[in-house]
Amino acid sequence: MAAENYVPISDLQANISHMRVAGVVIGKTDVRGFPDRKNIGFDRFTFSFTMKDSPDFFINVSAWGNDGYINTLSNSFSIGDCVIVENPLVTKKDPDKEDRFCAATPSFYRLLVSEAHSQVSLCADTDTIDRLLPLLHLPGKDPRDFYSLADIVANGQSLDGSVINILAAVRSIAEPKQFTTSDGRKGQRLEVKLFDDSVTSFSLVCWDREAIQLVQTLIPKETVLFIADAKIGFDSFRNCMAATVNSKTIITVNPDTKEASLLFNYAKAMSESGTLEEDDMPEDMPVDSISDVYTVSQLKLKAQESSEVFFGITYSFISRLVLDSSVSRVIRSKCARCKYQVNEDLESCTNPSCPGRGQALSVTTGFDLLVDITDHTGTLLACSLRSPVAEKTLGCTTEEFAGLTDNERTAMKWKFLLERCKIYVKILPSTKMRTGIRGTVLACSLADPGEVKQHMSALL
Question: Which residues contact 10 (CB under 8 A, 6 or more apart)?
Fold first, then answer.
């Protein structure tokens, strides 16, 4: 059907009948059931969705009917689909009632869909689809009207219960958790970690199936969200603020706005620098609590069998330890704000997405080494040995190391190279490593021969 045969949402009137409205679905609620007051003992079912046909106009659509009709209709399309609504009832909305439970829309009307009179179908016209799909990336609210995550944290419990807009990038998406309520109803919960240039981790919680399905399609660290009308609450269990997606919330994925573009570039820089991956690592276990002993091949095998982080001890040789190259390859300086590697002589950070760009450079300096760990069963390549563990292992600070002669650095290297060491390691999966696993040295010292014999004989 030609586009001119659809009635634009902006032209809807209460007396229009036998018309069609085409739009892209930008929001959708779960199906709910209510006791039918007219038919005692029976339930009525409903769900709502929000459709958009132009940058400035969108409208809520409510469907009512029996269990079979409503669930079949709800399952026939999702957020992001282009649909045609035929012969709906156009009714004036009650702003006080509707805007409390549904997405706030600029239209004075809402559409009602019933099995007897209306039809909702997927749009098959490619020209109409091509016209509608770009609207998915245009927020329904002013793109400059949002809270940064730092603003939310700073306001704290004064925002408890507020409904606000948020612009943030997706850091991670947890697996959905299923549960059963005390009255036997089944539910689900999914938590998304957000970040921006002011806060590295902030929780967004989804309870509805529709929101969860949308979120599960997103790519962490490559997606920016404009979340309109998220509910802010205080998480007493974690003692922090968190956001929740509810029936009013509209999530715009990768918004086509200047503000979102800047945040996307920042998120990309943070991801490429490895800063987010480092921050995602679980807390290190105290070395005194680590007791499991492994050969190198056992470390590799366990890492392949499970994606969980684990800790262990290996009595192995350090087969690669580069200390006698240029100091800049051993000691690195990073921007204290964004962790981007920088030259300490610069006046400001060179990362274009650094939140402190243009401000005086603040750096952290430390050892940043990659070592190979080898025993009779194999080699674990490119394990991280960083400050402060490196200082304790090498027995010197970065300043002292920078003052050593080439001969002194070589002598320090051979103190460890090809010597049996007791090495405490953390092993975790990593998509950036060719081997698929990443090792971090938590402690390293020359091993006691008696201790080595005792443990190695038990492993053979």
Answer: 54, 56, 57, 107
List of residues 6+ apart from 206 with CB closer than 8 A: 189, 190, 191, 192, 212, 215, 244, 245
The three state secondary structure string of 242-272 is EEEECCCCEEEECCCCHHHHHHHHHHHHHHH
The pTM of the whole model exceeds 0.90: no
- Upstream peptide bond of 388 is cis (omega within 30 degrees of 0): yes
Closest CA to 171 of 114, 103, 225, 102: 225
pLDDT score, position 274:
65
Residue 294: other Cβ atoms inside 10 A: 23
Q: Three-state DSSP class for 207?
A: coil
348, 338 in Cβ contact below 8 A?
A: no
How does strand 109-114 pair with strand 57-65?
parallel
* CA dihedral of residues 80, 84, 85, 87 (deg, nearest 10): 180
Distance CA 409, CA 402 (A): 9
Residue 328 burial by Cβ neighbours in a 10 Å radius (0-12, 13-18, 19+): exposed
- The Cα 443–Cα 289 span in angstroms is 12
Q: What is the pLDDT of residue 2?
A: 47
DSSP at 144 = T
Residue type, 399: E
Task: Give the separation between CA 246 and CA 239, rounded to whole angstroms.
Answer: 21
DSSP string, 95-107: HHHHHHHS---S-
The rounded percent of the chain whose pLDDT value lies above 70 is 90
| Per-residue exposure over 408-425, b if at least 16 CB sit within 10 Å of its own CB, e if not | ebeebbeebbeebbbbbb
Dist CA 117 CA 100 (whole Å): 27
Burial class of 372 by CB neighbour count within 10 A (0 to 12, 13 to 18, 19+): middle
- Give residue 223's pLDDT band: very low, low, confident or very high (50, 70, 90): very high
The token pair that represents 320 in the structure block? 């690669």
Cβ atoms of 426 and 383 closer than 8 Å:
no
Looking at the DSSP bridge assignments, the partners of residue 167 are 226
Beta bridge partners of 370: 384
